[in-house]
Design brief:
Oxidized Rhodanese, domain 1, about 280 residues, 2 domains, alpha/beta
Length: about 280
């Protein structure tokens, strides 16, 4: 069972197995149609597509950020449509350092499906290895997904102030409030520390050595247990890269504030910190 990361070599030896489900999550915030267009042009053979806005997000229920978390019922319907059941080994990939794929990884694990891994290096690594691709649109036979949510993994707006540790996963310039390209106002939630999700990746878009990631994560966590740490970002997407890294190095499972900065900053009455 692969539960965190998987390399291209291992995937290339297994992707044709009937109980493996491959999901392409390529997506661009700048052009929300381009990910699906790229999937149609070329993708890993057998891969189905999941769209960040239309599939991995939904109308707001638990949160009101830019990418609200679907209800457990909607997630179960999505996973069933993708062909995922309790016996499936799922592999997810994107072309953005695992940012969007990690969101699907987290959602599956939130719904208690453990056998899901992110392709290390993503689409670029598959291409660089010269491995086969398909074009067009593929679909799996529908399955019956029966997972249940882990509510303790999810932090909602009214719980943010009571969290012992908030970890902002955005880039340092956005954390410090020097720029804000997407959300209502710049800055960060008061008291939050910064661990950019990009710190987990090397120059080739692959995850850094385990000992390096673990040391940095432990330094940020300090005396707080991983299970008590709450990660957020702009809209509950890139923070999942940090959660993936923490699970991969054996530190355990943190919590996700899905509404993230896009929800927090939408109300000018809420406090904002800068610097």
């Amino acid at each position: 069972m692969y539960k965190t990361l998987i390399d291209v070599s291992t995937l290339s030896q297994n992707y044709q197995k009937s109980d493996w489900v491959i999901v392409d999550c390529r997506f661009s915030l700048a052009d929300t149609a381009v990910g699906y267009q790229n999937y149609q042009s070329a993708h890993i053979p057998g891969a189905v597509y999941a769209h960040l806005d239309n599939d991995l997000s939904s109308p707001p229920v638990t949160d009101h950020g830019r990418h609200p978390l679907p209800t457990p019922q909607r997630l179960a319907q999505l996973f069933s449509r993708l062909g995922i059941d309790e016996m499936s080994q799922v592999v997810v990939y994107d072309d953005a350092g695992g940012m969007v794929a990690s969101r699907l990884w987290w959602e599956l694990r939130y719904m208690r499906h453990e056998a899901v891994a992110v392709l290390d290096g993503g689409w670029q690594a598959w291409q660089a290895a010269g491995l086969p691709t398909n074009s067009g649109v593929e679909q799996n036979e529908a399955a019956q997904f029966t997972g249940r949510p882990r509510p303790k993994w999810l932090v909602t707006l009214d719980e943010v102030d009571s969290q012992p540790l908030l970890i902002d996963s955005r880039g340092p310039e956005r954390y410090r409030g020097e720029i804000e390209p997407l959300d209502p106002q710049p800055g960060h939630i008061p008291g939050a520390v910064n661990l950019p999700f990009g710190n987990q990746l090397d120059a080739n878009g692959r995850f850094r050595p385990n000992d390096e990631m673990k040391a940095e994560l432990q330094d940020v966590l300090g005396k707080i247990s991983p299970e008590a740490a709450t990660f957020y970002c702009g809209s509950g997407v890139s923070a999942c890269v940090n959660l993936l890294a923490m699970a991969h190095v054996g530190l355990g499972n943190g919590r996700l504030y899905v509404g993230s900065w896009s929800e927090w900053s939408s109300d000018p009455a809420r406090p904002v910190a800068k610097g």
